[in-house]
Amino acid sequence: MSIRHRRSGFGKSLTLQQYAKLENVAYVECKETVGLKNFIGAIERELGLIEGSGTTFERTQKIEDPFTEYPGYLLIVDEADKLILSYTRKKMEVIRSLYDSGYVGVLVSGEPVLEMLIRKHQPMFTNRVEFTGH
């Protein structure tokens, strides 16, 4: 898993949006107000799945299906620094679970604070990550 962090205005989102036009790439941009179910729904929509059926666990398992069917899939999560607050860690756990399935590459992008937030609030996430950014 790769974490890309850099200050606003360097073109991270624009670059990732262009990359997401490639085949087998799913792009999800996070907002501060996104909840867990909304986040999972955004991934489901990107993959062309029917949104909102089942528990969080069941929905996450269902998301893995296209990744197993199309090896080499990449999930891009942009503005991920907005996902990590004390009450929103479950969203990062969904990302970690998808990555741990072994079927999908994950690129997480955000502001420089993202690295600190992951190291502080998501220790199980940190050992799976390659941080890039200056």
Topology summary:
Blueprint: E1 2-5, H1 12-19, E2 25-29, H2 36-46, H3 56-69, E3 73-78, H4 89-100, E4 104-110, H5 113-121, H6 123-126, E5 130-132
Parallel strand pairs: 1-4, 1-5, 2-3, 3-4
Question: How would you concisely characterize the structure shown here?
Answer:
With 134 residues, this protein is of the alpha/beta class. The protein has 6 helices and 5 strands.
Describe this structure as you would to a colleague:
By secondary structure, the chain is α/β, with parallel strands linked by helices. Helix content is 43%, strand content 19%. The chain contains six helices and five strands; from the N terminus they run E-H-E-H-H-E-H-E-H-H-E. The protein has helices spanning 12-19, 36-46, 56-69, 89-100, 113-121, 123-126; strands at 2-5, 25-29, 73-78, 104-110, 130-132. The chain has a five-stranded parallel sheet with strand order 2-3-4-1-5, sandwiched between helices. It is globular. 28% of the residues are buried.
Cα distance spanning the termini: 18 Å
Q: Could you tell me the strand content as a percent range?
A: 15-25%
**Shape assignment:** globular
User: Could you estimate the helical fraction of the residues in percent?
Assistant: 40-55%
How is the quaternary structure best described?
Answer: single chain
Largest sheet: 5 strands, parallel
What order do the SSEs take from the amino end to the carboxyl end, as H and E? EHEHHEHEHHE
| Whole-number mean pLDDT | 80
